[in-house]
Amino acid sequence: KRLQAELEKYQGLQKDIQKSVSARQKLDAQLNENTLVKEELDRVEEDSKVYKLVGPVLVKQELVEARSNIQKRIDYINGELKRYDKTIKDGEKKQDSQREVLQKLQQQFQQMQVKAAAKA
Known about the structure:
This protein has helices at about 1-45, 65-120, and strands at about 50-55, 55-60. It is mainly α. Strand 1 (about 50-55) and strand 2 form a beta hairpin. The chain is rod-shaped. The model has no long low-confidence stretch (mean pLDDT about 95).
């Protein structure tokens, strides 16, 4: 029973890590997209008109404001990426220690089976 409980705990850790990795990949894609937008905005001349998509409507936006918004978004995404990196690293450490617990329990279980077989 204990082996089963520890195995379920290990599988739970695996799922948590996978969720974090998936979320991190989405953030990475967003960062790439926002970086491309920033590069495009940096190429735009100062007197150019810039529009922002709000729902189904394009709304005029000041270039300085657009650049500021995109930089804030990039900074936020970078912060979230660092947070997910730490979460993933911590999860992997927990998973490693849980794997060791499982291995010890499996060895104990096998030793008990050998002893039981020897008595029979």
